[in-house]
Every structure is written in C-alpha cells, then in structure tokens.
TrEMBL record:
Gene3D superfamilies: Vaccinia Virus protein VP39. This is DNA methylase. Residues 547-639 are annotated as: Disordered. Keywords: Plasmid. Residues 554-576, 610-639 have a biased composition (Low complexity).
Length: 639
C-alpha cells in the first residue's frame, strides 16, 4: 500500500527533493521512499523516533511533537504518511488557530509546509471527509485542491493497528499563490445523509457521508454497510479486500487518477531546484532532539528591528517580520524594553550578581516603567467592549438551541425530527437577541506582545486594579524578590552535612561530608554512624538510614544464620531487625554516635514521672547487664 502511494507521486511528477512525513512512527513510508527523496520524519515518541533514526540513517528524524515543528512554509515538494486520528486538538497557534482535531491539523499544517504545486498524500480518519462540521475541509480547500480520494475497507489496518476503522487515502495539491476557487463548486466540502443497511439484521440508519464518495461510489474499495460500535452506536463500515489484494486495488485506482491530474494541469510541479532560495532549514540526516538544537529564543519572542524600524518575531527557524500595525510599533518597542530589563534584573538576583549591578538594572527599570506609564498608562490597562447581537449570532444561537433540544428529545443516535413547539420558538427568539457578555480589549497588545513568552514578566510589574484602572508598582522596583542560591561550604551538624551531600551528589559522599564538617574521614564515619548504613547490595556503598530502614526490612535483612560482620564504614544494618522486627529480635541497648569536639548532641529529656500506682516492669536480664544477646550487637561490642 505504501509503495502504491509513492508510485502515484512518481506518476504525478515527483522526481526527488525534500519530503515531509508527519507522525512517521518507525518509518514505514521512509523505508519505501524512492531514490532522490530526502525524507524528514517527525515523531513525538522518543523510543520510536530513535528506532526510525537507526533504521533509516539517511533521513532526518525530528523527535518532537508536530505541533512544535517550526519549518519555513513551502520547504517540501511533498508530504506523505499516516496521520494520527483523535477527537482532540493540539496547541499550535500558527498552524491550528481554529483548534481542528489532530488528524485535520496534521493535514492543514502539511499543506502549509509543502511548496505550491506540491502534493500531500495521507491516510486519515474518515471523519476528515464525513464530519458534519465542514470547517476543516473549508480550511483545506482555501489553499489546496483534492486530486482524489479512496475509502479503504474497515479491516485495512486491523493487523497493524489491532482495530477496525474506516480510513481514507486523500491526495491534495497545494494551489499556487494567488489562485482562487469557488468553494461552493466543490462537492467534497459537503456531506449528505446516506441510508445504510446492516446486512446481518436488516436494520437501517442514516449516517452522514461525504458527497464525493456518494458521487463517486467506485472510489469506495468495498461495500458500505451499517455496523455498530462497542456501545451499540451506529457506525459506517466498509467490507472489502485486505493485504496484497487491497494494495493492487489502490494501485489500479491511483495510476489513472494521477494521469488525469497531470492531463488537466494538476500534476506535482514543485521541484527541489525551485526551493533552494526558500529552504533555510538544515535537513541533515540523523536524529534531531531538543538537546541537539541550538539554544534559540522561545517561540513567538518579539524584537525591535532598528534597520527596518519594525517588529520581528521568532518563528522557530529564524526571525520573520511580525504583523504589527505601524501605530503600535513604538509602544511595542517600549514593552520589549521593559521585558528585557525586567528579565535581566530577575536573572541578576537569581545568579547573585553584585548589588551595584542589580541597583543599576532596577533604576533603569524604574525609568522605563515611569516613562511608559506617563505616556500611555498602566501596562495591564484594557477597555470593556460591548457587542450587539447580530443576525449571524442570532441564527447560530437558534441553531444550537434547536440541535440541543432535538438531541434531548430524541433517542440515542436519532434526534427528534418533529415540529418545535411555538412557545419554545418564542423563548429561543428572546434568548437569541440578548446581547453577548462584554469582553476585555487590550488594544495596545495587538502589536504581538500578548503572545510574547515574556509578556507574563511585563504584566507582573504592577498590581492592577480592574475596578479603578489604576496600578501600583510591584516589589521588584524597590527590592530583590529572589535570593541567589549560594552554595554553602560548611555544615553545623552531621545531619545537615548528610542532607547537603544527598542534595549535591545524590549519594552519601563521606569525603564531602567530612569537608563540610571540617573533620577527617575516621571522625566523619563516627559522626554519621546511625545516620547511614552499608548497602545490602554493595557493603562499600553507604545509604541513608531512611532508605535502609524502609520497606519490608524483614525480607531485606540478611539471614540470621549468618551474623553481619561490621565494616570499617559504620555499624552493620542489623538494626533493621532490632528496630523494626520486635518479634524476631531481643532487646538491645541503643548505640549513639561518639561525641566529637565541637558537636554537642542535646541531652535526652528526663523520663516522665511514673504515675502513682503504675506497675513497674522488671528489666530483662540482658538489658540490666547492659548488653544484648543479638549476634550482631555482640560483634559490634567485640569490635
């Protein structure tokens, strides 16, 4: 099937050049790419991306979500692949501002990244074509023509994906810049209700089907029938061939389809030679991860371009002119300066820069902010905008109210199709003409600053009162709001030194602990005795007591038949049994770390007075003798 798609691109005119595969997985399409194709695959899963890079070292595999991919528009001659399906939207303000579902988002973005005259051939969910809501199809049709479509059988990918879903193979051609088309003349924009029959039960149901497949039933590679989902809901299924037989069918349909497209001037005309000036991205083969990328500014960061006296925006691959109105360029420039100085002041506080440097930055920030407020007002100012209910808004509200009511009055999967009561229509009319809620309008941010990642820093420079429209300066204008993380060189107690060792090295570092306490190795081991124990896996490794005494200590302790021999590191781990397994261990005296000059442990508080008349338990013989019968304790005492 994949080879048939590549063959179709060749028949349409593909002769080599950069090709995009969004959501490439382990590289099925990459593995069948013809000679001359430079494939760039995008894969969000790290393991799958690494596998694809190992399998196909001549391709560039980008380990990133496609919503974060930033490549200049028109960089590819074609795009192929099996896009992910789902009823959710990814955040991509540049290429998915309308919040299309993930499969439609991938198609729309691929069309943007393909050059005019380039093809996008993708396997996608049938809902790209069959969704009653045609917004995504209209968005696609605004810049591309549908060369052709094939509806595949439900079981086409059951062996690979483990599920039966109806999938469409769609082939689009990006229209040349400046070319327009009347969307009303395109049959594939709309859907119609089609009567489907379940061949097993004879049940009938109407489901929306794209007009393209109703007008071209031969493009459906099987019999369209009524089926039922896991919860009994009606769904469209296509019964047809699979495997090699299906691949042959696809090839038989695609070849004449491409021939006809070329004949009417709709072939794949994008050429790699035409992209040389357009391509600024480096498609070097290999695995590209976030760690291998250059430390670029955050996406949508603004800057003032003094040469052109305009605002630029970082688009992920370079600086591009931002669509900032000329009337807002100067104010946006001032907001950018506030952002940069405030960010520098925060960094100076965090990094512990000299006080003189911090004071200079703070004075500069005060000057910039005061000048801005004096000329323009608070940075968080806004105005309330009240809209009137238009006829278009009225009609949308009525349609939504009616749709909701019919679904509530109907049964599952079959909305009520009877007349609407007159009193309900009157109620809807009154509701539909109510003015919408007012909204905040930040006119001074329409130059692009609202989408700058540093806007949060600028907006936090003042405490803004929405009721009065006034603002007061934030504390950063008068004092430091961050404390530098200064690494300490000494510790006051063994416990503190151990905590600092774990924080810095993630392990018990005896040398570091001794350095912090200012004592030698022998004294260090004596001081941390009881705070750490040898690891059962490696006696030379010390672990904190909280780790050694956690979990199922009875099962993790060494066998009783083999008493622990203490190491020179510290006392053995047998206290696990003594402290946590009272049914297995006899009483023993507690062992305190030896005193060391300069480290005085607090004396134990006096024992609480025994209430009058309370029975006194006689001490055990071993306790009274000041020794334990535990083999481990005897060994310790002997040492």
């Amino acid at each position: 099937m994949v080879s048939a798609v590549w063959d179709a691109l060749g028949a349409a005119g593909f002769s080599g050049g950069p090709v995009l595969e969004p959501g490439c997985g382990s590289g099925t399409f990459i593995g069948h790419a013809p000679e001359g194709a430079t494939v760039v695959g995008v894969e969000a899963d790290d393991i799958t991306a690494a596998i694809a890079a190992l399998l196909y070292p001549s391709a560039q595999i980008r380990h990133e979500g496609f919503e974060t991919t930033r490549i200049p528009e028109g960089s590819f001659t074609a795009a192929v692949g099996n896009v992910p399906f789902g009823k959710y939207a990814l955040t991509d303000p540049v290429h998915n501002p309308r919040r299309h579902s993930i499969h439609n988002h991938f198609i729309v973005k691929s069309l943007s990244l393909v050059a005019p005259g380039g093809y996008v051939a993708v396997l996608t969910s049938r809902y790209t074509m069959d969704s009653v809501k045609s917004t995504a199809r209209q968005n696609i049709a605004q810049r591309a023509d549908l060369i052709g479509a094939l509806r595949l059988p439900s079981q086409a990918f059951s062996r690979v994906a483990g599920t039966d879903v109806v999938t469409d193979l769609l082939i689009f051609r990006r229209r040349e810049d400046g070319a327009h088309v009347d969307l009303d003349t395109l049959d594939w924009i709309d859907t119609e209700d089609a009567e489907l029959v379940d061949p097993r039960t004879g049940d009938e149901e109407q489901l929306p089907v794209n007009a393209y497949f109703l007008n071209n039933p031969h493009r459906v590679l099987g019999d369209t029938e009524l089926g039922h989902g896991v919860h009994g809901s009606a769904q469209l299924v296509v019964a047809g061939a699979t495997g090699h037989a299906l691949a042959d069918q696809i090839r038989d349909h695609l070849q004449p389809m491409m021939t006809a497209a070329v004949a009417r001037g709709m072939g794949l005309t994008a050429r790699s030679t035409d992209l040389s000036e357009r391509i600024t991205e480096n498609f070097t083969p290999g695995l590209r991860t976030q760690d291998t990328q250059v430390d670029d500014p955050p996406l949508y960061t603004l800057r003032y371009n003094a040469a052109t006296r305009s605002i630029d925006v970082w688009a992920g691959h370079g600086w591009e002119p931002n669509k900032t109105p000329r009337t807002l360029v100067e104010e946006t420039k001032e907001l950018i300066a506030l952002r940069d100085v405030a960010t520098a002041l925060i960094a100076a506080q965090r990094d512990g820069e000299p006080e003189h440097d911090r004071d200079q930055l703070r004075a500069h920030l005060n000057t910039l902010y005061d000048n801005y407020v004096r000329k323009r007002g608070p940075v968080n100012r806004f105005e309330w905008v009240q809209r009137n209910a238009t006829q278009t808004l009225h009609d949308k509200r009525i349609a939504k109210l009616e749709t909701t009511w019919r679904e509530q009055e109907g049964t599952t999967g079959r909305p009520y199709d009877g007349p609407v009561p007159t009193e309900l229509v009157d109620q809807w009319e009154a509701e539909a003409w109510e003015p919408p809620e007012p909204f905040k309008k930040f006119r001074h941010l329409e130059g692009g600053m609202r989408y700058d990642p540093g806007w949060a820093v600028v907006s936090s420079l003042e405490d803004f009162d929405e009721e009065t429209g006034t603002a007061t300066k934030a504390p950063i204008f008068t004092r430091d709001v961050l404390t530098a993380d200064v690494e300490r060189t000494t510790a006051d107690t063994p416990e503190e030194a151990l905590a600092m060792s774990l924080d810095r090295t993630r392990r018990v570092d005896v040398d570091l602990i001794g350095e912090l306490l200012g004592v030698g190795e022998e004294d260090t081991r004596a001081l941390i005795d009881g705070l750490v124990y040898p690891s059962l896996d490696d006696p030379d490794e010390l672990v904190p007591a909280t780790t050694a005494l956690s979990g199922n200590v009875r099962s993790s302790s060494p066998p009783r038949s083999k008493p622990l021999t203490p190491t020179r590191s510290t006392s053995p781990t047998s206290p696990r049994c003594a402290r946590c397994s009272p049914s297995d261990a006899k009483p023993r005296t507690s062992k305190c770390a030896p005193a060391h000059p300069g480290f005085r442990r607090p004396s134990s508080p006096p024992s609480p007075r025994r209430p009058s008349g309370s029975p006194v338990s006689p001490p055990s013989t071993s306790a009274a003798a000041g020794r334990s019968t535990s083999p481990a304790t005897d060994a310790t005492a002997a040492s």
